[in-house]
Design goal:
The chain is an alpha/beta fold. The protein is built from eleven helices and nine strands. It has a single domain (40-237, 274-303), classed as 3-Layer(aba) Sandwich (Rossmann fold). The protein starts with a helix and ends in a 9-residue tail after the last strand.
């Protein structure tokens, strides 16, 4: 009798687990919830910190200039311009005398002029991953690390995509690409930094954004090729990622369903954000190699941890 009771308990437990998983998968077909799983934009990780006071993350006074960019479709993107340490030291007195906090007109700030007016200045466009803001986790230490090889001339510019942090709007594949294009065009047109002096550094979902960006720029009537792009933990596309992705490294998304190819194919059709990075990268490289001899070419670096449980 005890054995029967135990077997019944196991059966009902498995049935309940299966039902909850089916409910979870069903919820993921709802666009709003699907977007939250992909972007995790509701998880800011900086709830009790003011992202307009970067000194909270160990930066010197006005080493970082917070400001907003406006996209063509009317969204406001929160951004940080991070000065390299040695350049900051050379101008510390003047920089410290400026007002601290959000710059209403960033072009009037000394930090912007130091970037624009130095023909040797180099710039890293930093496109972060899912969840958090530009002040979350290891991102601020990463900004400082960007300029180590040339601490007097490598600037960093980071943004929160629409729907993230203090930026307005709601994230989408088209929207995040628009945000990246807005950033790149602002840098080239307002700060007067040519693509040959720009490198893109991207992580996780940011790698998908960066590949869409460089593909877009390469397909224009007058192609613009950046000096390089560094991809940290990239993925082929969202459909491939969901097969192996586990939330917090433990809860599988579609791993059990992957054993049923037809069901997996049907569910993949319901994924709104595709982010076809593999396809974008392949076409980008083909286009670059088809360009005339003497073109600047391309440089793509991929960095990936062997024990990355989010993106294997």
């Amino acid at each position: 009798m005890a054995l029967v009771t135990a077997l019944q308990s196991i059966f009902y437990g498995l049935l309940a687990s299966t039902g909850l998983y089916a409910l979870f998968i069903g919820l993921l077909t709802i666009p709003v919830l699907q977007d939250q799983v992909i972007y995790l934009h509701g998880v800011t990780l900086t709830w009790f910190q003011d992202v307009n006071i970067p000194e909270q993350w160990g930066f010197l006074r006005n080493q970082v200039t917070p400001f907003f960019l406006t996209t063509p479709d009317g969204e406001s993107l929160h951004a940080w311009h991070i000065l390299p340490l040695e350049l900051y030291r050379q101008n510390q007195e003047a920089l410290s005398a400026e007002l601290r906090g959000l710059a209403l007109d960033v072009k009037e700030r000394l930090s912007f002029k130091l970037l624009r007016d130095d023909p040797s200045s180099l710039l890293v466009l930093y496109l972060h991953g899912a969840a958090g803001t530009l002040g979350s986790g290891w991102r601020p230490p990463s900004y400082r690390a960007m300029s180590v090889s040339a601490p007097h001339r490598i600037h960093t510019l980071a943004i929160d995509y629409r729907g993230f942090g203090s930026s307005s709007g709601y994230p989408s594949e088209k929207g995040l690409l628009t945000d990246a294009i807005t950033l790149a065009e602002w840098v080239m047109k307002e700060a007067k930094i040519p693509p040959s002096r720009i490198v893109i550094f991207a992580q996780s979902i940011g790698t998908a954004v960066s590949l869409s960006l460089i593909h877009h720029m390469a397909t224009q009537p007058e192609p613009a090729l950046f000096s390089g792009v560094v991809l940290v933990a990239p993925f082929a596309d969202v459909e491939s990622l969901t097969v192996t992705y586990r939330i917090a490294g433990t809860v599988p998304l579609l791993d059990p369903i992957a054993k049923f190819p037809r069901l997996l194919t049907w569910l993949n059709k319901l994924i709104i954000a595709k982010w076809p990075s593999k396809t974008k990268l392949a076409d980008f490289i083909r286009r670059c190699e088809d360009m005339d001899q003497g073109s600047p070419g391309y440089d793509v670096t991929i960095i990936h941890a062997e024990d990355d449980y989010d993106i294997p």
